[in-house]
Design a protein that fits this description.
The chain is of the alpha+beta class and 292 residues long. Helices cover 31% and strands 33% of the residues.
């Protein structure tokens, strides 16, 4: 089995538990009939560049060893190709691994590379940039834009919380216009999520009905602004009761257009400012996942 592993040494577990890296590599190399190419990357975008150039080079699987940013780079490189991809979780949250049932323990995740089954997944497309997890516009995007990756060395996951608190008290929420092109329905809100996967930032479901294999994206529109509604939304989402609130709209969509004066992100990576067209790309990538 010819395997390419693209390892992000700046990922959370690599910084916290460097010894695990050697154990993962050793376990792969010791598997019978394995031809391993192991590449450490050193800058954002390098995983995508190497993976893209490696399609058609005869690799049975191209594996990303990192967090959700690593997954995002891989899916942008491998979208709409026949190349199989694998994931060894090595980040802070590893949201896609949770969604796909891939073990969070990176040593256990190696077994999926060799013994798992192939599963096709949908992707989202935001103005041409693909995402596996979600697009967010508004407050959460402002938090992503404020996030400083170098702080995770000292604060771990609390670096995200720090940027979220700063955004909460400083971001001026403005109305966002959402057009559901499928049905010609128009909504207005102050925070918008377009989710391919249900989980958001860990083990909480932001879009309870999202299934990344059903040919749809899930739209979530928070319709009110201000400190008290935003705090209510936050608490309700944390305890996974936000779907019970009457001022949050949920829709299954194929194509939405979001306009307004706000930043947006995909998969917790800062992208830019609205407007953005978001569409589903059905069965866009093939990933090794655990056998049922």
């Amino acid at each position: 089995m010819k395997i390419l592993v693209l390892f992000n040494p700046a990922s959370h577990k690599a910084l916290k538990w460097p010894d695990i890296v050697g154990l993962v590599r050793e376990k792969i190399e010791q598997h019978p009939d394995t031809d391993l190419m192991w590449v450490e990357t050193h800058r954002r975008g390098e995983i995508e560049e190497i993976a893209r150039s490696s399609v058609g080079e005869g690799f049975d699987i191209i594996v990303g060893m990192g967090g959700d940013g690593t997954v995002n780079e891989l899916v942008n490189a491998l979208c709409c190709t026949d190349q199989v991809m694998g994931i060894i979780p090595f980040g802070i949250t590893n949201v896609f691994a949770l969604e796909a049932g891939i073990p969070i323990n990176p040593i256990d995740a190696v077994d999926v590379i060799f013994e798992g089954r192939k599963q096709e997944f949908d992707l989202g497309d935001a103005n041409g940039r693909k995402f596996m997890l979600m697009l967010g516009a508004g407050l959460d995007a402002r938090a992503v834009h404020l996030y400083r990756p170098e702080l995770k060395v000292y604060l771990n996951q609390y670096a995200y919380i720090a940027s979220g608190v700063k955004a909460f008290f400083t971001y001026r929420q403005k109305p966002l216009e959402v057009e559901i092109v499928d049905t010609n329905e128009h909504l207005v809100g102050y925070q918008v999520i377009v989710a391919n996967c249900g989980y958001y930032g860990g083990r909480r479901k932001i879009a309870p009905d999202a299934v990344p294999t059903d040919g749809y994206l899930n739209l979530v529109v928070y319709k009110k602004r201000g400190i008290f509604p935003t705090f209510k939304y936050f608490i309700a989402t944390v305890i996974e009761q936000h779907h019970r609130l009457g001022d949050i709209e949920f829709r299954k969509v194929k194509l939405v257009r979001i306009q307004g004066d706000a930043p947006y992100h995909i998969d917790s990576e800062p992208l830019g400012h609205l407007p953005v067209d978001v569409r589903v790309v059905e069965r866009a990538v093939t990933v090794k996942v655990p056998r049922i």
